[in-house]
Automatic annotation (TrEMBL):
<dbReference type="InterPro" id="IPR012902">
    <property type="entry name" value="N_methyl_site"/>
</dbReference>
<dbReference type="Pfam" id="PF16074">
    <property type="entry name" value="PilW"/>
</dbReference>
<dbReference type="GO" id="GO:0043683">
    <property type="term" value="P:type IV pilus assembly"/>
</dbReference>
<protein>
    <recommendedName>
        <fullName>Type IV pilus assembly protein PilW</fullName>
    </recommendedName>
</protein>
<dbReference type="InterPro" id="IPR032092">
    <property type="entry name" value="PilW"/>
</dbReference>
<dbReference type="Pfam" id="PF07963">
    <property type="entry name" value="N_methyl"/>
</dbReference>
Length: 259
């Protein structure tokens, strides 16, 4: 009778097999991690770019409305009388006669303008029922102008406040800066930019810049963000080095205020 000898794996062979399997598992895990990091990075970039485009377009559109009046021959002082905060219905928005833009802080301002027709609404999507009859007639002065406050709050939200409430337009804006192009009466071009113009200064344009950020770290790095350094002129806190930052800039001419 013949005996069949069965031989299993030796200890060395088993260790080699386990080493190869461990290496393959680590490689697969690293591939999954790298893919996830790349996905988060690209999504964060896309979110930043979308927020940047929306912010630029929205600020440009709202600022361009500043000082619009339905009667071109009507003086600003007559079209836009002095208003107290209670009359404007928006906190901080106090205007002298003829003033249609007011700097509140470096990242907040108030504007006012007349609606061009019955279909035009404010930044909250609301009209003014009191204007219905007057806006049905060409060049008729509306009963009530639109007053809006544009600002960034401490929660990194771009807000618009008008009569009836406030709405968040976009998020992820760490900071916002307004500068006002002031000229001289009778000339359309600004001669200087300032963050605090006088109430009677002839403002010709508004220059704005915003620092945007992703809500959570999108990469692992020890390097400072060039956008952060450009904005703050200082090093980035280590806890937020993985976030993506972007700086956007724009300038809007206040064509309704040009001579």
């Amino acid at each position: 009778m013949f005996r069949t000898t069965q031989r299993g794996l030796s200890l060395v062979e088993l260790l080699v097999a386990l080493s190869i399997a461990s290496f393959l598992a680590l490689a697969a895990t690293q591939l999954v991690v790298d893919t996830k990091i790349s996905f988060l990075f690209q999504r964060a970039q896309a979110d930043n770019q979308a927020n940047a485009q929306f912010t630029l377009q929205w600020l440009d559109r709202q600022l361009a409305r500043t000082g619009f009046k339905r009667r071109p021959d009507q003086p600003l002082q007559a079209a836009f009388p002095a208003l107290s905060e209670a009359q404007s219905g928006v906190a901080g928005c106090v205007f002298t006669a003829g003033q249609v833009i007011k700097a509140l802080t470096r990242k907040a301002l108030c504007i006012r303008y007349q609606p061009s027709d019955r279909l035009e609404v404010d930044c909250l999507g609301n009209g003014r029922p009191a204007n219905a009859s007057s806006l049905a007639q060409p060049y008729a002065e509306p009963v009530e102008a639109y007053i809006e406050k544009l600002a960034v709050n401490n929660n990194q939200q771009l807000l618009c406040t008008s009569k009836g409430g406030s709405a968040t337009l976009t998020e992820g804006i760490l900071d916002l800066r307004f500068d006002y192009g002031v000229g001289v009466y009778g000339h359309p071009d600004p001669t200087t930019y300032t963050a605090s113009p006088a109430s009677d200064a002839p403002i010709r344009s508004v220059r704005y810049a915003a620092l945007l950020s992703t809500p959570a770290p999108a990469r692992t790095t020890t390097r400072d963000s060039p956008a952060w350094q450009y904005w703050h002129e200082s090093a980035l806190p280590s806890s937020t080095k993985g976030q993506l930052y972007q700086v956007i800039k724009g300038t809007t001419a206040l064509r309704n205020l040009l001579p």
